[in-house]
Amino acid sequence: MLVRKKMDENYIMVDFSYYCYRCGHLNELPLDAPDAPAYNHVDLTCGKCGDGTRVLLASCPNPDCKQYVYWINDISIPEIVTGFAKYMVHNMQTMIDKAALQGAEISIDTPHNYPINASCPCGTDFSVDITIPDLD
Length: 136
Ligand SMILES: [Zn+2]
Ligand SMILES: [Zn+2]
Description:
Layout: E1 2-5, E2 13-19, E3 26-32, E4 40-45, E5 52-59, E6 67-73, H1 77-101, E7 113-119, E8 125-131
Antiparallel strand pairs: 1-6, 2-3, 4-5, 5-6, 7-8
């Protein structure tokens, strides 16, 4: 998690910049950073070498704070969460089926959000809720 200041406290758009991991080119672009627990997940392409990366941004929900947090990675955090959730649901289903063979009944509610915790330097702890698509 990294933290940066917003351009304008009343605007969710931030002036995002990053150095390409592959060629070192400085890429700059405006991106939305909605207040957490909402988030914006964007695919980024380096303007010089075309290398792709992804960023997940959210603004600190403290109204007095002018900062936003972001996670930048080659892999998609929402995809990991979804993949992991599918794996868990599959394993739980196996367990439920086994229990059913023995006459037991188990029902498990699968969560709809996966929270990623963040701490802003202003002292606010919050989470970004990654939505888990319906897996049924
Ligand atoms: Zn590049
Ligand atoms: Zn803050």
